[in-house]
Amino acid sequence: MSTRVEEEYDYLFKVVLIGDSGVGKSNLLSRFTRNEFNLESKSTIGVEFATKSIQAEGKTIKAQIWDTAGQERYRAITSAYYRGAVGALLVYDISKHGTFENVERWLKELRDHAEANIVVMLVGNKSDLKNIRGVETDEAMSFAEQHNLAFIETSALDSTGVDTAFQRILTEIYRLMSRRNMAAEEGVGGVGKGQSIELGEGKKGGKKCC
Amino acid sequence: MSFFQTIVRSFSTDEGTRDDVDSTKEEKGDALNSVDDRNRGKSDIPGQCGTPTKSDFDKATANERDKAAEQYMLELKLKNSGSKDDTVVGGTDSHEDSGEDSDLEEEAADSHETQEEEFYLVDKYGFIIEDIDGATGTSGGSRTTKALISEKERQKRADLESSRSIKWVAMISEWNKYSTRQKHVVKRRIRKGVPDAVRGKVWNLVGGVDDMIAANPGRYDRIISLSETYVPNQDIRDTIERDINRTFPRHRMFKDKGEGQDKLRRVLRAYSLYDEEVGYCQGLGFITAMFLTYMPEEQTFWQVVNMMTGPTCNMRTMYQQGMPGAQKALYVGEKLIKKFFPKLTQHFARENCHISMYATQWFMCIFTNSFPFDLVTGVWDCFLAEGWKIVYRIILTFLRYSAPRLFKLGFEGIMFYFKRLPERIDGHTLIQQAFSFPLKQRHVDHYERKFYKLNPDIKERLDEEERRYKEQGGFGMGKGGCYEVKGKGNKKGKEEKKGEGNGELVVREDSEERRMSVNL
Q: How far is Cα A22 from Cα B185, in angstroms, rounded to an integer?
């Protein structure tokens, strides 16, 4: 057992935050991990990293979250971070329809560079900007259904939906893993408890608790 | 129109109290604003590009700058919201107005009709101090290393900067001599750090900016006019717009809508038309904003052109589609770390910690977006004059300094360590240590060649572009133009090696110029 409490977790999941620049990825991350929102935040250059542990179905799940620069050409660097990610929050800005239109391109990016079974959640951020909404909830929801994505609207500014978004995607990943593990117990391989399930580069395996 | 009046006050951070001691005008702010305003006019101040006179310099003596360094500023921001109602309105509107009103603003600058006051403390570089104890923050606030150095040391540095300023003024007045026959002196003094009072001027001399402006009279203004109607790429325009208020949001020049943000927007838009292929790439905004804190708008534009397309910095390749320059820098950086710190490299490998995780933003912004500004400006003194080696030296010095701690940390610890690294650094000391780091140009060259060997497609692409530049010609400055003025001692050989030939500046004549002549 680890002596340091903050190191204890059952699962370690790597999640990426992607989406156009200026949709609020960094503030979603800071709201979730530190409960902070910064109106005067700086543009993210390259990648930023943060972690937070949550409880889901009696397990402690630690999320390692990579926040990426939104400008398209940065994908030359950031796409390496999709590898090994088990979840992706694909963020758009509900007040800017253009950022929603680009969601397809981001999905293609994930298809090209991420694991096939990555769990993707579509996140319509800035839901506080209702008066200048440019993307209707129904439109986004039906898009998400078509593409088999989870969907939520959030506001990093007033906190609405932020914890729920992360909680849901992490729980979803956990369930998926558990199902796979159960299948594995009957068959071959699989990911054990306390084992890091993130793959690829960029993460250190978690402390094994068992 | 908003303008600033600044009052210097001293306060003791130890006791947490403030006493009004002095009420001198804060030189940097006023000098900067007035220069900017003048320049924003129809470039009718040709002398602005020339050598500063003694009286110019007196306006912002190093002594007073140093005073600013040792004391914190209490800035009294006066918003003249009277009949000019655009102080608080949206960005685009105030942008249109600000250009036209610049003359008016100059006149209005003396009539201090206060209606609204906002107080905040700024450090010597203009960043707002969030924490009264003077700690450096990564949130974009204060960028001095005040908390890390003693009062005595700070005084010593201030005195040194004053005495160096005097030497620099003398050197600037005989720049032609120094930049040709005494390059070694220039190089040595640049490495010691350019005094803040003359920094903008020196950067422009070193970058050949004055010559670029002389060779392209009125061109910046023409591109600006063009940018009002011509938008070849809306995506680029939108990306710029989204970054305007996310660039140094805790710097007094850029924190609110107004002149500073307008200038940043205009320069970035202008560059995106000047070089449509690159357009705009995130990261460029921070560098441009840094230039704007030291020089007027038109000079900033040409400094950006120099920094992007000139052979010394060659930042353009960092920002192109595919980011070939960034990939190269990350590769070379990784290999250099491996060469000088093999054990640390093993530790990083065990922890799956890759250079792109911590150094991407260092490279893309050449440290401007998060590090203390004494480090940032010191690096840029040298980067503009000598090129990329200083960037690698700094990273290697970071690691030498950090290695004992990094060995004890796991992956997450390493990531958080790097995240908070800017707060731990005394930039002045670190940069001096960096110069003694045993890195040679041949090491850099070696790994660059290796990178190209591994990535022949990138090599081919960059070569092709270089050919295209050459075919399309430069600014017509000829010999003795930009790069002759650079006076960087060792530059010429390197340029020739890079195929730039003759030490002339070879820059693509952009398609924009041709299109412009049709449009205008």
A: 46
